[in-house]
Design brief:
This is FAD-dependent oxidoreductase. Keywords: 4Fe-4S, Iron, Iron-sulfur, Metal-binding, Oxidoreductase. It holds the Pfam family FAD_oxidored. GO terms for molecular function: 4 iron, 4 sulfur cluster binding; metal ion binding; oxidoreductase activity. The chain is α+β, with helices and mostly antiparallel strands. The protein has 11 helices and 24 strands. The strands form 7 sheets. The chain has a 5-stranded parallel β-sheet. α6 packs across α7.
Length: 449
């Protein structure tokens, strides 16, 4: 690779804050809002034109249950519940009670606006269309984030930094250790399609995808979808699969975006050709492909599949979840579900389900699992950096369960509150008193167990 040398130059300081959040998914927004509500001066940086991450820019409009697997105990609240309640007041959410696959269907366009309102009400400084470029480190201390937007290149100075970029971009560029699983879960490009459900009446999609996959160059994968609340026939469909393309690599991400869109068109062309007189219209495509997994940052504790599947409790737990382990495979089509009750199901569309057990029966099955604070604390010298989101330290099995949005939302809230405590007491994230953190989370509306 040829190298060029960029000349040193002075750049302006765009803004100075107590806490800088890089990444504006719901995870990042909730981090910023929780810290700001406690009194911190917070700035949030987002590369897209709106907040919400995969939920909005990726079109994924499902949040999972806030209850345990038996639906007899609520285990998630905080800003996730508050946001659902805000959307419900304008008819932008549908609740599916006692459903392991879908807790809430969201109108994610309305979610964009509601997230705007959340950060504005909390007086968070916002930079949209702004890309994180590099960390600014002096004498081994992270002092600022270098960013670029329409105003050019500038610096955001802060005392505490929350990496909510999804891919762990800040940690990566600080040289903090990380890994990318050789079996990282593949990406999916979603689409909103008008007339999808009426158009598929009497048409077996799974059978057609197997029969015509070679004609339309559609890889085998797994498809699902959900209606858009209060729309007549608009359906969000997630049926594409981009294998072996790492979204933390620029060229691979470019390929993924174009290949995902190609597959959307191919699936629709197939339905148009072999369906029964359907009248479909492509309404919207994502502005960012649905990336499931890239980097995992080396933290003080790696959450394991055994921890999740056996419902291990942690003294430093800052999030609870009940979504089953859901592994989208790289090496074969379909996916594997593992449940806390010991059941396992491999689903390959068009084939019979393969049902079995991942463990023998036990006297009492766990009904939820937890994520510890330590899994957000990067190893290394930078005490003012924490991760919040899918780049947390987990193994492949644990990631299959914890990666969903209602779980990641809680990591953002924990990171925001931890940043405020560290700021107030002049401590790094690793030295924050975890019981104080858990108490503060509970005081702010989170469920702490």
């Amino acid at each position: 690779m040829d190298l060029l040398r960029e000349e040193a130059r002075e750049i302006p300081v765009f803004y100075e804050a107590d806490i800088c959040v890089l990444g504006g998914s719901c995870t990042g927004v909730f981090a910023a809002v929780r810290a700001a509500r406690l009194g911190a001066k917070v700035v949030i940086i987002e590369k897209q034109n709106a907040f919400g991450g995969v939920a909005t820019s990726g079109l994924v409009n499902i949040w999972h249950s806030l209850h345990n697997t038996e639906f007899n105990q609520q285990i998630i609240a905080g800003l996730t519940l508050e946001t659902i309640e805000r959307l419900d007041r304008i008819g932008a959410v549908i609740e599916h009670q006692k459903n392991h696959s879908s807790g809430f269907l969201l109108n994610t366009e309305e979610l964009k606006i509601e997230l705007d309102r959340l950060v504005q009400e909390a007086n968070v400084k916002v930079y949209l269309h702004t890309m994180f470029v590099a960390p600014y480190v002096v004498d081994g201390e992270l002092q600022a984030a270098i960013v670029e937007n329409k105003s050019g290149r500038g610096a955001i100075k802060a005392q505490m930094f929350i990496d909510a970029t999804g891919d762990g971009d800040l940690c990566d560029r600080l040289g903090i250790g990380h890994r990318i699983s050789p079996e990282f879960q593949p990406s999916t490009a979603c689409a909103k399609i008008d007339g999808w459900e009426p158009g598929l009446q009497g048409f077996d999609l799974a059978e057609a995808l197997l029969a015509y996959k070679e004609e339309f160059h559609i890889p085998e994968g797994f498809g699902w979808g959900a209606q858009v609340p209060n729309s007549k026939h608009v359906y969000m469909y997630a049926g594409t699969r981009v294998y072996h393309a790492n979204s933390s690599d620029g060229e691979a991400l470019t390929y993924s975006e174009m290949e995902g869109r190609r597959q959307v068109r191919a699936i629709m062309d197939m339905v148009r050709k072999y369906g029964q007189g359907n009248q479909m219209s492509l309404v919207s495509l994502p502005s960012y492909i649905g990336t499931r997994e890239t980097r995992h940052i080396d933290c003080h504790y790696q959450l394991t599949g055994d921890n999740v599947l056996h419902g291990h409790r942690f003294d430093d737990a800052i999030a609870n979840g009940s979504y089953r382990v859901d592994i989208h495979h790289q090496d074969k089509p379909g996916l594997t579900f593992r449940y806390l009750n010991g059941e396992q199901v491999y689903i390959r569309p068009g084939y019979p389900h393969e049902v079995g057990k991942w463990r023998e029966p036990v006297e009492i099955d766990p009904t939820f699992y937890q994520i510890p604070y330590r899994s957000l604390l990067p190893q290394g010298p930078y005490k003012n950096v924490i991760v919040a989101g899918r780049m947390l330290d987990v193994d492949e099995t644990a990631f299959g369960g914890v990666r969903v949005m209602v779980n990641m939302n809680q990591l953002g809230e924990a990171a925001g509150v931890a940043a405020y405590i560290g700021l107030s007491e002049n401590k790094g994230f690793v030295d924050v008193d975890v019981q104080q953190l858990r108490h503060q989370l509970k005081s702010g509306g989170s469920i702490v167990l």
